[in-house]
Specification:
7 domains, 5-stranded antiparallel β-sheet, alpha+beta, 30 strands, 32% strand, OB fold (Dihydrolipoamide Acetyltransferase, E2P), disordered N terminus, 663 residues, disordered C terminus
């Protein structure tokens, strides 16, 4: 029996693929499933090469698909095919395994894998999405299998890749709450995550916000890193959704709290109260204390009863200290504070604690030109005046004997509680050498000393260290008028002197130099009696006369009207220093130690020719002015006359009225 041939199936076009026509067999479901574009397949293949860690997963998925396709493939039961209705139902069930997702929405995703840099997320689409691990602020707590919200940016990019974002999803999810807080001005809590240029990144409800450095605190924060990891109440001060820019401030919150505290504190504060504060700022003149919203000034003079060179010696920034309200001006809000007022006043019972004559020990805390201040106790200082430092030494400055920080022993000389002053002395620690000065240097004794200083009125002779005597200029010579002590002795020279007088109370010793020799005046009274004739050498020209040296023994004085020239106005017009003139004694005053002589009396009983010879030797000096063609100006004439007189007077010595030279 011939075998019956089965009818041939009509060909099915690609466009009609999956549709039932006539007796045509239904195509396999795999033929009508959603196929990935060729480009996408190539990209996935590339990813398998670049990311070997995904290769096992990809292979596994391909194996699963190959196993699933025969399962959902329609097949004939007892050589019967599915009806078109059954095929469409099976196809719809297969398509329902894929979620319908749209770009710009937040979708649920499941963490499939976590790599070093990325997180692979399945959102129920035909391909997985890759999100950078940096978008997860709590990446350490993330685990495989966790469900997360992600934002679908692009279903397929140019590489066929699903583009997801965790940060955008977090931002959109909390945006309404952030916007509401911004509009109402309410506070939000944020965690300081990391430091960046200009400020700190803050985790605000799961999204990043920026906290500028200027908005962190009321004053500049030196170390931002110390704040990382802390939670703070913040206020949103700037918002931009399109740029996802959120700026927050901590400073505005602190300012508001400070104003509230200030208003409350101003109603409670009163003079005399003791309050706790924090050192906010330190200056050269004092310390500013934050009392809790209100600042007060603690002046340097109210820091301690003792000496304070700078407030930083007592307090440091950030210190919590108790202070006393000294004064409060409600109109200006100024508060004066005190710290030393919380301790007892150190000058109470000062007379009993430091009686006069008590020996004590202290530290030198300051040195001035007039003395040294010694700290005896906290807030109590005494002054050692420069005059109380040594009995014998000539101290030019206290620093020559003492230095700051030195420990010294001193004796209390006086106490003035009203002015808070104590006078001290250190020379009193040793015996006063002036107590035995009269026995050591009796009046009339000859002593040797060193010329320590020369002045216009005399010479100071150092008899021993700290004990000086004065030789007055009148005690330098019996017979000569000394203009300056430098004519007789030199500084540093050792000389012998005689003790004339001792004033123990004023600590003065009068010495004499001329007293080393016998007084010549009693014997000179015979030689230079009135009427005696002699010669003298002019040694000084004065306005009222000349001083002459009488044979090297003594000096005499010749008045101008006794120089033998009747019309002479001043001696320098006719005489010069060194001229020798004949003289007659017209006055001898031994008590006053004075001899007056005269040239006129000498020539009174002599021949006229002798007087004329004398006058010819001392003509009156005149200035000759030559006649000029043009009449000279009066100013030029006076100038010429003055210069001529100056030349004539050049060799003359200093007069008695002139100031002696300084040595």
């Amino acid at each position: 029996m011939a075998e019956k041939k089965k009818p041939k199936k009509p060909a099915v076009s690609k466009t009609d693929k999956g549709k039932k026509k006539g007796g045509v067999k239904k195509p396999k479901p795999a033929a009508v499933s959603r196929k990935k574009p060729k480009a996408q397949v190539e990209v996935q293949a590339t990813e398998l090469i670049e990311k070997p860690e995904l290769e096992p997963e990809r292979k596994e998925r391909r194996v699963v698909k190959e196993k699933k396709e025969p399962v959902i493939q329609p097949r004939l039961e007892e050589e019967k095919e599915y009806t078109p209705e059954e095929f469409q139902k099976m196809l719809s069930l297969y398509e329902q395994t894929f979620k319908e997702v749209k770009e710009g929405e937040i979708v649920k995703g499941k963490v499939l894998r976590i790599t070093k840099d990325d997180v692979i997320v399945d959102v129920g689409f035909k391909s997985e999405g890759i999100i950078p691990l940096s978008e997860f602020p709590d990446a350490e707590q993330l685990k495989i299998g966790d469900e997360i919200d992600v934002f679908l940016e692009i279903i397929e990019d140019q590489n066929g890749q699903l583009v997801l974002s965790k940060q955008k999803a977090d931002f959109i999810r909390v945006w309404d709450r952030i916007r509401e807080s911004y509009e109402k001005g309410t506070l939000v809590e944020g965690k300081l995550l990391k430091r960046i240029k200009g400020g700190i990144v803050v985790d605000l409800m799961g999204v990043d916000a920026f906290l500028p450095g200027s908005q962190i605190a009321l004053k500049q924060v030196p170390d931002f890193d110390a704040l990382l990891g802390k939670n703070m109440q913040l206020r949103i001060i700037k918002l931009n959704k399109s740029r996802r820019n959120i700026v927050v401030s901590r400073r505005s919150v602190l300012e508001e709290e400070r104003e509230q505290q200030k208003a409350k504190l101003l109603t409670e504060i009163e003079t005399g109260q003791e309050r706790e504060g924090v050192v906010k700022n330190i200056t050269d003149f004092g310390v500013f204390i934050d009392l809790g919203g209100v600042d007060g000034l603690l002046h340097i003079t109210d820091l301690s009863w003792g000496r304070v060179s700078h407030p930083s010696e007592v307090v440091a920034l950030g210190d919590k200290i108790n202070v006393k309200i000294l004064d409060f001006d409600k109109s200006t809000g100024r508060i004066s504070l005190g710290l030393k007022q919380l301790t007892p006043y150190p000058w109470d019972n000062i007379e009993q604690r430091y009686p006069v004559g008590k020996r004590l020990r202290g530290k030198v805390v300051s040195i001035t030109d007039y003395g040294a201040f010694v700290e005896l106790d906290k807030g109590i200082e005494g002054l050692i005046h420069i005059s109380e430092m040594s009995w014998t030494k000539h101290i030019k400055h206290p620093s020559k004997l003492l230095g700051v920080g030195d420990m010294v022993e001193a004796v209390v000389l006086s106490v003035d509680k009203a002015n808070e002053r104590i006078s001290l002395g250190i020379k009193q620690m040793e015996p006063d050498p002036w107590d035995a000065i009269e026995r050591k240097y009796p009046v009339g004794s000859k002593v040797s000393g060193k010329v320590r200083n020369l002045t216009a009125f005399g010479a100071f002779i150092e008899l021993e260290e700290g004990v000086d005597g004065l030789v007055h200029i009148s005690d330098l010579s019996w017979t000569k008028r000394i203009q300056h002590p430098g004519e007789v002795m030199r500084k540093g020279e050792r000389v012998e002197v005689v003790v004339l007088n001792i004033d123990k109370e004023n600590r003065r010793i009068s010495l004499g130099y001329k007293q080393l020799k016998e007084d010549p005046w009693p014997t000179l009274s015979k030689k230079y009696r009135i009427g005696a004739e002699t010669q003298g050498k002019i040694i000084r020209l004065l306005d009222r006369g000349v001083m002459v040296d009488l044979e090297g023994e003594m000096e005499g004085f010749v008045p101008t009207d006794q120089l033998g020239k009747p019309d002479l106005s001043k001696p320098s017009d006719a005489f010069s220093s060194g001229d020798t003139v004949p003289l007659k004694v017209i006055e001898f005053d031994q008590p006053a130690r004075k001899i007056v002589l005269s040239v006129s009396e000498y020539y009174k009983d002599r021949e006229k020719a002798e007087l004329e010879a004398y006058l010819s030797k001392h003509p009156t000096k005149t200035v000759k002015v030559k006649e000029l063609v043009e009449e000279p100006k009066m100013e030029e004439l006076e100038k010429k006359i003055g210069s001529t007189q100056a030349e004539e007077n050049k060799p003359e010595t200093e007069t008695a009225e002139e100031e002696p030279p300084s040595l």
